[in-house]
Design goal:
Elements (H helix, E strand, L loop, with lengths): L1 E5 L3 E8 L10 E9 L1 H11 L4 E7 L1 H11 L6 E5 L5 E8 L4 E4 L8 H14 L5 E5 L10 H11 L3 E5 L2 H9 L4 E2 L3 H8 L6 H13 L4 E5 L5 E5 L2 E6 L11 H16 L2 H16 L9 H8 L3 E5 L1
Parallel strand pairs: 1-4, 1-8, 2-6, 4-5, 8-9, 9-10, 10-11
Antiparallel strand pairs: 2-3, 6-7, 11-12, 12-13, 13-14
Length: 309
């Protein structure tokens, strides 16, 4: 089973407009609220692909109640840790041409006792887990070492870990030696304090991140696919050219499909091919929607895997 932890979940409000243009009006075509957060998104993808998953998250306030109601319809088990403060609301504005603006609230302050309850909830499920996905930003009150602590805890239970976060939590988490770390290009640039502009830069970045402590690295490059560093081997995974409508959430789909494929076949090369296929297929869909297994399989056929010598 793949257990996901979303420490900073959200209500994701997606507004679709006719066009986004600087200093000009846009007309709203549709508005949709849905459960949000990288771990929740990942569990949705794993479940839709037929995998076994469980999502752990804190929730409080009226928005937390709405989030809980949304999650009742997702079809996979959820463990909700009560907190006092309300869940954040994130805003995504996208137009019909794929231009997207994403605005995230920092999230509720989490008290020390609440954080301890979250950690206990994770620990209670590790005996059932093959993988633990540690996903997304940390809200106020959560120390940047929190993911690192959970990586050590998972290792004690012989559970593999995938780390998908940013900033200090990413750096400290990598130093704790997760099984896989999956930054996108912007997160890797902030981590390494350098711009990544060329193919050589991408390959060097994946290699550098691996030397920082991660066993394996997946560097997500959006429409350019991904670079993977696994057990001394480097691969490039290149998707077919598609018309992207909304890239938001494509990275979550990639990480989730990667672990789903690892559970089925335990082959890093094929798993990253599936991950890139799912991310690419999801980017073709409007709003915060994720591709189905069949939609991803169609893209998978056109995904190219190259070994870097």
């Amino acid at each position: 089973m793949i257990v996901t932890l979303t420490v900073n979940p959200a209500i994701d409000r997606t507004i679709t407009v006719d066009r986004l243009a600087f200093e000009d009006r846009a007309y709203i075509l549709s508005t949709k609220d849905s459960p949000g957060g990288r771990g929740i998104n990942s569990s949705c993808v794993v479940h839709s692909f037929g995998g076994e998953t469980l999502a752990i998250l804190p929730a409080g306030g009226t928005s937390g109640k709405r989030l809980s109601d949304f999650l009742c319809e997702c079809g996979f088990p959820v463990v909700i840790v009560p907190i006092r403060n309300k869940v954040r609301t994130n805003l995504t504005i996208t137009d019909r041409h794929g231009l997207t603006v994403k605005l995230n609230e920092p999230g509720p302050k989490v008290e020390k006792a609440e954080l301890a309850r979250i950690e206990r909830a994770v620990k209670a499920k590790l005996d059932q887990a093959d993988w633990l996905m540690l996903c997304g930003s940390l809200p106020p009150g959560v120390p940047s070492k929190f993911y690192a602590q959970l990586i050590h805890l998972a290792r004690e239970h012989e559970v593999k870990t995938l780390l998908d976060t940013d900033g200090d939590a990413l750096q400290e988490g990598i130093e704790a030696k997760p099984t896989v770390v999956s930054p996108n290009q912007q997160e890797a640039e902030r981590l390494l304090k350098t711009a990544l502009l060329t193919r050589t830069h991408y390959l060097q970045a994946a290699e550098r991140i691996q030397t920082m402590g991660a066993e394996s690295v997946i560097l997500s490059l959006g429409s350019r696919g991904a670079v993977g560093a696994f057990c001394g081997r480097m691969i490039e995974v290149i998707p077919p050219r598609v018309d992207a409508v909304s890239p938001i959430g494509a990275g979550d789909a990639m990480a989730a499909a990667f672990l789903w494929a690892m559970e089925n076949k335990d082959d890093y090369k094929d798993a990253l091919r599936w991950g890139v296929a799912a991310g690419t297929a999801s980017a073709q869909l409007p709003g915060m929607r994720f591709a189905t297994l069949e939609q991803s399989r169609e893209i998978y056929k056109g995904v190219e895997v190259r070994r870097v010598e």
